[in-house]
Amino acid sequence: MAGQNKENAEHYTWGAGCDGWRLLNREDLSVIQERIPPGLGEILHYHARARQLFYVLQGQLEIEVAGSKTPLTPGDSLEIAPMQHHRVTNTSDTDAHFLVISSPTTAGDRVNLGE
Fold first, then answer.
1. How far, in Å, CA of 103 to CA of 51, rounded?
2. CA dist 91 to 34, 45, 61, 94, 115, Å?
3. Predicted local confidence at residue 15, as pLDDT
């Protein structure tokens, strides 16, 4: 049995040049490694069922939750409860690499709220 990593995991792109690698893709648990280039991010949204944990591996993230912004650097994490409006942005000048751990999966569970 081989371990999962960016080289052998399912890859997808999102937004304007962001990447994701599905390290674990089960209905009850999802682990995704993502990359956001400088100045980019996602739109405000929420998940009805999924609880998420964002864990920064490299670079910096800013996570807005219910209107409050929290900066994260390597080693930092932030939990997002179901129904919390949130968005993740890379406000630094280098790529941000991080893990998104979701239980259950966010597949079919995302409601976009706009910019």
1. 5
2. 15, 18, 6, 9, 16
3. 87
Phi, psi of 27 (to 5 degrees): -65, -35
- Answer yes or no: are the C-beta atoms of 108 and 48 closer than 8 Å: no
DSSP single-letter state for residue 8 = T
Q: Return the number of other C-beta atoms located less than 10 Å from residue 70's C-beta.
A: 13
Element (H, E) at 102: strand 96-103
Domain boundaries, the chain: 10-110
Instruction: Write the pLDDT tens digit of every residue in 59-97.
Output: 999 999 999 999 999 999 999 999 999 999 999 999 999
* pTM listed for this prediction: 0.93
Which tokens is 49 given? 């069922």
The class (CATH top level) of 10-110 is mainly beta
Q: How far is CA 105 from CA 12, 61, 62, 78, 92, in A?
A: 16, 22, 22, 17, 28
All residues at 6 or more sequence positions from 75 whose CB lies less than 8 Å from its CB, including other chains: 56
